[in-house]
Specification:
Blueprint lengths: L39 E7 L9 E4 L4 E6 L5 E6 L7 E7 L5 E9 L2 E8 L6 E8 L5 E9 L1 E6 L5 E6 L14 E6 L4 E5 L8 H6 L11 H4 L2 E6 L5 E6 L4 E6 L4 E7 L2 E3 L24 E3 L5 E6 L2 E7 L13 E3 L25 E3 L15 E3 L4 E5 L5 E4 L3 H8 L15 E9 L2 E8 L4 E6 L7 E7 L4 E7 L10 E6 L4 E6 L4
Parallel strand pairs: 19-24
Antiparallel strand pairs: 1-33, 2-3, 3-4, 4-5, 6-7, 7-8, 8-9, 10-11, 11-12, 12-13, 14-15, 15-16, 16-17, 18-19, 20-21, 21-25, 22-23, 25-26, 27-28, 28-29, 29-30, 31-32, 32-33
Length: about 500
């Protein structure tokens, strides 16, 4: 096995078990009575500048965080959190020799899986590289689909999954299929699934709110998997298809994609969904507007209540911006139906003029003008039934309003996606299902009790580093202090912050 340079601390053998799933948990808890509404920062470390701390994974065996660092380097930084109040960088895994750039990491039982996109050609197949967490030695390299954007172990450790986004190059001369790879860890055999078999359902899916670009050469090429969560029994996965405004359901036993759930549109023309749409009105004002939003989720997590599975989405939104094709424009530059939008003042910058819209949606009667305005993202988190894909709850405008109440709302993002929910993570604390939501543009996370999926209860808002990208919960049973910890990795300023709740 190839050995990488390590510090003296990294060579120490620590005999304990290690088990971490990057995006979902429901881990067994030790007996500790904590208040999930009282998380406070207890430790922080900066490992670089922008793009230095995108995603972290935790190994209980070594009490280390493994954090993606793409800030002018190509490596995984290793952070000792034996004392989480004093996180210490003790080493790195240099990825230069693997001809790929890291997008994601996950840990299980002393093994670190890293998703690497090809640096030579982003549209070529990527790979998963697996290392030993104690000495960083290479265990295995396997080839997956193009642009693996997220990697995770299943809760039982039998599988590694990747969401392979398969983005096109700038002139669309190369546009690989979006795929999902399933790796069996017993022998590292790989099954990579594409979405070609769903092409015959495209018309029905689109009618129900799924999005397929009018520029795409094929249905399978247009699909862009983003993020994965896997059920506690390791039999089912749900995968966000962000740009397509959908979620795919995967049966891990049969290794098949069993369903695509279109997520539909959110209507902002109501008091409870009121949003701020202008970055040029010198104020923060949440008002109803005749606008709809595609949910377009980024991160996804899951939980169960009364034996029903649910998944939670961070409804960030994302545009396609390439030289050959761009699907985003300001409202004021688009032609509107004069009957539906009779007020010419709507195009003023202080009104809807600055709002970024989806350019190839909204012409419902095919006459060349927009009959409805469709924007990117839903500025919310949503809870969906895992069996049916039907919405159970949406947070409406709560994320932006809560951020604004604490002076964290960035009005310069009002024309785009507001506070921009980027990350979600659901875990069990005592007998409660607790949800953490990371807001990329408000630099904060919010905490909710989602024990009742149809009626979540807000608990807390906490400041983070700049542009939080990754949320990682370490349950008390696996924590170095036997207290629950939340690790927030922020790619804007390269910080990793650690939070702990008070005891009740």
């Amino acid at each position: 096995m190839k050995k990488l340079s390590i510090s003296l601390l990294a060579a120490l053998s620590i005999m304990a078990s290690c088990n971490n799933d990057e995006n979902s948990s429901n881990e067994p808890e030790v007996t500790v009575n904590e208040n999930p509404a009282t998380f406070k920062e207890i430790g922080s470390i900066t490992i670089g500048g922008e793009a230095a701390a995108e995603i972290s994974a935790y190994c209980e065996k070594t009490r280390r965080l493994f954090t993606v660092n793409n800030s002018g380097v190509n490596q995984i930084d290793v952070i000792d959190i034996t004392d989480p109040t004093k996180p210490l960088k003790i080493g790195k895994i240099d990825l230069a020799s693997y001809e790929g750039a890291a997008n994601s990491v996950s840990v299980f039982d002393g093994k670190l899986a890293v998703a690497l996109e090809s640096t030579a050609n982003k549209q070529a197949n990527g790979k998963v590289v697996v290392f030993n967490t104690s000495d960083y030695s290479l265990i295995k390299q396997v080839t997956v689909g193009a642009l693996p954007d997220m990697v995770t172990f299943s809760p039982d450790g039998k599988y590694i999954m990747t969401a392979n986004e398969g983005e096109p190059n700038t002139d669309y001369s190369q546009d690989p299929n979006g795929t999902i790879s399933i790796i069996e860890t017993s022998n590292y055999t790989i099954t990579t699934l594409d979405f070609a078999s769903f092409a015959s359902q495209a018309a029905t899916l689109i009618k129900d709110g799924f999005r397929v670009s009018k520029f795409a050469k094929s249905f399978a090429q247009d699909i862009e998997p983003e993020y994965i969560t896997i059920s506690d029994d390791s039999k089912t996965a749900w995968v966000t298809l962000q740009e397509n405004n959908g979620v795919a359901k995967v049966d891990l036993t049969s290794k098949t994609i069993t369903a695509i759930y279109p997520l539909g549109l959110k209507d902002y023309n109501s008091a409870e969904n009121a949003i701020d749409v202008s970055d040029s009105d010198d104020k923060i004002a949440f008002n109803p507007w005749k606008v709809k939003g595609l949910f377009m989720p980024d991160a996804i997590s899951h939980f169960s209540a009364n034996n029903v599975p649910y998944f939670v989405t961070a409804n960030e939104g994302d545009a396609r911006e390439y030289n050959a094709y761009t699907d985003i424009k300001r409202m004021k530059s688009l032609k509107l139906d004069a009957t539906v939008f009779a007020d010419a003042n709507l195009k003023l910058d202080a009104n809807l003029g600055r709002l970024n819209l989806v350019t190839d949606m909204g012409d419902t009667d095919g006459d060349g003008d927009l009959d409805e305005l469709v924007s990117f993202g839903a500025r919310s988190f949503s809870i969906w039934n895992g069996n049916t894909g039907k919405i159970v709850y949406d947070s409406k405008n709560d994320l932006d309003k809560k951020a604004n109440e604490l002076g964290l709302y960035d009005d310069k993002r009002s024309d785009d996606k507001g506070s921009e929910p980027e990350a979600v993570y659901v875990t069990k604390m005592g007998n409660q299902n607790i949800l953490f939501v990371g807001l990329e543009r408000a630099d904060a996370f919010l905490t909710y009790d989602v024990t009742n999926p149809s009626s979540p209860q807000y608990l807390q808002t906490v400041k983070t580093g700049d542009a939080p990208e990754g949320l990682l919960f370490i349950p008390a049973s696996k924590s170095p202090t036997k207290r629950s910890l939340l690790v927030v990795s922020s790619e804007g300023d390269g910080t990793v912050k650690i939070y702990q709740p008070d005891l009740k």
